[in-house]
Write a structure and sequence with these properties.
By secondary structure, the chain is α+β, with helices and mostly antiparallel strands. It has three domains: about 200 residues, Heat Shock Protein 90, CATH 3.30.565.10; about 160 residues, Ribosomal Protein S5, domain 2 (2-Layer Sandwich), CATH 3.30.230.10; about 190 residues, Rossmann fold. It is built from 20 helices and 22 strands. The strands form four sheets. Strands 1, 2, 3, 4, 5, 6, 7, 8 and 9 form a nine-stranded mixed β-sheet that branches. Strand 10 and strand 11 form a beta hairpin. It is flat.
Length: about 675
Amino acid sequence: MISMEDKYDEGTIQVLEGLEAVRQVPGMYLGETDNGEALHRCIWEVVDNAVDEHLAGYNDLIDVVIKADGSVSVRDYGRGIPVGIHPDKGISTAEVVMTSLHAGGKFDNEAYKVSGGLHGVGVSAVNAVSEWLLMTIHRDGKIWQQEFREGIPQYDVKEIGDSDKTGTTIHFMPDLQFFSNVTEFEYDRMDERLRETSFLNGGLEITLTDEVSGKEKISHKYEGGIAEFVRHLGERAVSIHPEVIRLIGAREDSDGKLVEADIALLWSDAYSEKIQCYTNIIRNRDGGTHMSGLRGSLTRTINTYGNSRELLKKVGNLSGEDIREGLTAVVSIKHPDPSFSSQAKDKLVTSEVQGIVESIVNEKLGEFLEENPTTGRMIIDKAILSSKAREAARKARDLTRRKGVLEGGGLPGKLADCQSRDPSECEIFIVEGDSAGGSAKTGRDRRTQAILPLRGKILNVERQQKHPAKVFQNNEIQTMIRAFGAGVGNRNHDDDEDLGDDAPDSTELDDGYFNPEKLRYSRLIIMTDADIDGAHIRTLILTFFWRYMKDAVTNGNVYIAQPPLYQVSRGRESRYAYSDDERDKHIAELTADKPNAKIGIQRYKGLGEMNPDQLWDTTMDPEERTLLKVSVDDALEADNMFEILMGEDVPARRAFIEKYAMEVTNLDV
């Protein structure tokens, strides 16, 4: 028997017309709706359309304004959207652009040779998720206007005046029913993205005005383009050569379409690499074929140059990792028909781009090095020092592994291991101190939960990048490495990608580097005290994970336990609170029938203050606990945060703290 709920026939198939599909599932078109991504994507869609007019040679200014009522307007001074009747639709072309998901001048490469738009489905998606949108067009000596409500036109495009200017203004109010958590436009987020866009389009001026806060209008304009961008990205380090290396070239693909590459390189005394990739001004967070082309050609070109000058006789060929240490690079590709791994365009997958970038870098960088031998020597010397430090770190890492084996089984004595040997059901709690470790060991589920107590604060690995071997000599870090059983050190998977079919299978790797496939536990849970020291220890452990076991983070193996802050009691009834607001809520509920009732409040500052049963009930029981999963949306931004917060640049850290101090409201002093 089939119930009505199980009915599946012609009547259950829903056809969504126009912009209804976007309003039904906005996340599919604009990205995550609960973290501000989709809300701000609305701005980027409109701004990218304005940038397309710049790329086409018709616009050098974009004005973005956050209005006092929370709406946003974006004005460009390009040609203005055509307002005439569309030959196929029978309505104004401007209305077609605003109400059809796949309408625009970017599909036939006639109006736009390359385009930064089409990041989702364009401005029509913005219209769909707007409470209202007002489009104003200056074109053909006239001013034209049309208003939309929830994506529906309120009247036909109409002439409202004369104008000697050209361009388009899109003014919209987002419909907040589609967005949660982040429902207001963030000035800093917008400023960063608009500045980045201006860097990528040398000579394009973008202004930002915030009528909500009353901040002074700012303007971004960089005639030097990505050369200035590279200096900005590497501003906290000292460059080892005076000028940015700029590599510009173009090649035709197999279809005869012209692909342009603009690449800027700058080496510094830093110890990590920063490479940001763009296709038609859209950021590709996960890189892609243009990044692979740059990496491979850098290794070959610099090794060829070093050998030709007999600079590598004592060390042999340098690895790509050593060559790229301290490198800040921006790779900007303009392609008439690029392909990406997803609609979000996080990774470029157009295969021919790799060869095109390799060819341009091999030619242009080779010429630069021949003409600038002093700079070439500086780059080689930097890579040689990196190679020596990496070799010292490898020996220390191998010594740590051998030491574990010689001590019997490789597991540290302080580890209280679990009984199961199935990693998929096992988890390890990394706890602060023997007192908390004792409570955790007694209260745990011995079958699936292991406990690893650490003594005090581990080494700040961010400040040991000059001497990475010291990291592996730290007792607490050695303890974690041996307990996890998966090696240590970030293996460069991008180098593996360059090897194609010859790249090693992750399950077969046994070269000492960290391999998440070999983890003895599927969840690495950091459980520290709910105070400032506990937060610092947690950050130190996260820093170690990111710098030496990055795949554990990107693979989703790292979690943060959430012990309660308070126990609120009235008589025999007790409740746990994980925030000040929850504490106040419990107090109000417990005193609802008797306002003067005596309430006991215990503030937990240490895990050791809880008895084993309490720790199990509140923090370790899989059925009741709250775990925060550590994830990274932008690896480069994560690198930047670790450098600022945990590195040696004190002024940068001070500036960061002063900027965001007002947002921190729950610190225990």
